[in-house]
Amino acid sequence: MNTKVKKIVSLCAAGIAVGSMMLSGCGDRVPEDKGEPVVTEFQQEGPAEISVFAMDTYMKVTAYGAQREDAVNAAVEEILRLDQLLSAGDETGEVGMLNRTGSGTCSEDTAYLLERSLELHEQTEGAFNVMMYPLMEIWGFIGGNYAVPSQDTIDGLLPLADLAKVSYDPRSKEVRFAEQGMKIDFGGIAKGYTSARIMDIFDACGITSGIVNLGGNVQVKGKKPDGTNWRVGIQDPNQAGAYLGILQLSDQAAITSGGYERFFEENGIRYHHILDPNTGRPAQSGLTSVTVVSADGTLADGLSTSLFVMGLEKAEAFWKANGDMFDAVMVTDDGNIYVTEGLEGRFESKAGDVHMIRRDPA
Ligand code: ADP
Ligand code: MG
To answer: For position 30, what pLDDT does the model report?
Structure first.
């Protein structure tokens, strides 16, 4: 057992609460301030549930079983810790500080995420790239000053996103950027890592049934208390508030990347927050939404972003080569839904016919 899990176990055993504020009964209030968790009073029976606003999104953690309260408390503590640690712009955290100074020694979490990110960059032939932050800034996706940059500006910033200019030593865990202004951004993978860490916390607390929803990205532990699969809705990219379909999950994450999530419009053209590292512009791959289902939450998040950048054809080829690790639900610009065959019988469409992607077409 690693030290982190040990710490969580002792937290569970001691029944430590995360902060006194969350113990005041808050009814069904939605948390407004970042970092203020809201408990809807722990009940004698049923689930323990906490909501918190972190990583720019509403998050909800639910657990069943004897240690449910300790589990959700520990989960929220972990969310807040990772939010600060991994946030690209927060200089009080590790990644923010690294971005300011251009070098440093990674903690266990950051080293793990950097290693996974470098690996994904290779596997996806560059579609996944955690060095896009300077481009995210210039498009206004950081800070909110949305504007379409000139081609010269984009060309000037693209070299800062070159992962070959990041030196990382997996033994010493030292990382160094070769150029001034290079910045790392775990925004495409951090939520999946967070939900994966919460599953470790659930394990350490003996939770066999639970679910986390991090802004529409979901990971479940086991099945529902009644023994049936968890049923999780996927947002319809073409209709706000409507479901594209329902996924049945057990011990899996379902993580969605969509161009409809964060975008601005200029001269009638829509620009969204997932960038193609080849062009430095919002990916125009013909996909409007990609949901990746995997037992590995970190992978599911990284791949949802990657497949969105790749487009249907490349994504399909990628799944055929690596499909034992994950499955996917993809929606194209023209509204067609494609589902890989591992989800057969597990995805119920609410928005039209489904094209099944098979490894060996009959
Ligand atoms: P969301 O965060 O909206 O759930 P994603 O998981 O797809 O969706 O992550 C998008 C975020 O990933 C962006 O906000 C940005 O921080 C980062 N990002 C953008 N383009 C890429 C890319 N090509 N590879 C890796 N990360 C990216
Ligand atoms: Mg992602």
So the answer is: 42
Neighbouring CB atoms inside 10 A of 316's CB total 18
Residue to substitute in 305, 308, 314, 330 for testing ligand 1 pocket (most ligand atoms within 8 angstroms of CB): 305
Indicate the residue type of 356. M
For ligand 1, is residue 131 a contact (CB within 6 Å)?
no
Read off the amino acid at residue 136. M
The structure's pTM equals 0.90
Quick check: CB of 136 below 6 Å from ligand 1?
A: yes
Residues shown for the chain: 362
253 lines ligand 1 (CB under 6 A): no
pLDDT tens for each residue of 312-329: 999 999 999 998 999 999
Residues 6+ apart with CB under 8 A from 132: 161, 185, 275, 277, 280
Under a CB-based contact definition with an 8 Å cutoff, are residues 325 and 299 in contact? yes
Residues 227-255: pLDDT tens digits? 999 999 999 998 988 999 999 999 999 99
* Banded pLDDT at 38 (limits 50, 70, 90): confident
